[in-house]
Amino acid sequence: MNESIKNMLERRSIRAYKKDLVPQETLDVILEAGEYSPSGMGQQSTLMVVTQDPELVAKLSKMNADVMGSKADPFYGAPTVIIVFSDSKMGTCVENGSLVMGNLMNAAHALGVDSCWIHRAREVFDSEEGKELKKQWGVPDEYIGVSHCVLGYRDCEYPTAKPRKEGFVIRV
Prior knowledge:
Structural class: alpha+beta
Largest sheet: 4 strands, antiparallel
Distance between the termini: 26 Å
Helix content: 40-55%
Number of helices: 6
Strand content: 15-25%
Strand order of the largest sheet: 1-2-4-3
Radius of gyration: 16 Å
Order of helices and strands: HHEHEHEHHE
Number of strands: 4
């Protein structure tokens, strides 16, 4: 089987991480894959903010948990967070950000790094605290949070895929 297809079929979301950091050279390759994601009209209207700073990761996790009204760690202990932002002026902003997320997660898996898509980035960065972080990072006001991609190395068994549902593909 083609390695790219095999990678897409085998990748799973991981919800328990060791504290080991993703090496910088590996992280750079993953980020480059995100940069080369398709985008509507080739506009490249997304941004990624990446951190491995434990204090900032903890702060972002708490902000995300607060949106849910939870005390749990929505980042599952992952030591690396990539926040994907997209220009809300683009009609395809959510789609563009989602394509970045797909590339990030598939590239991570191809390199032996585990990942999970974490929702609530829009709500986190619509908050006053989130807006202040965007300002500190130089993210334009019109950019919305699409998602958080958490990365690291799993501290659990590798999940098996659920069976694919009937009728997923309709051939006409």
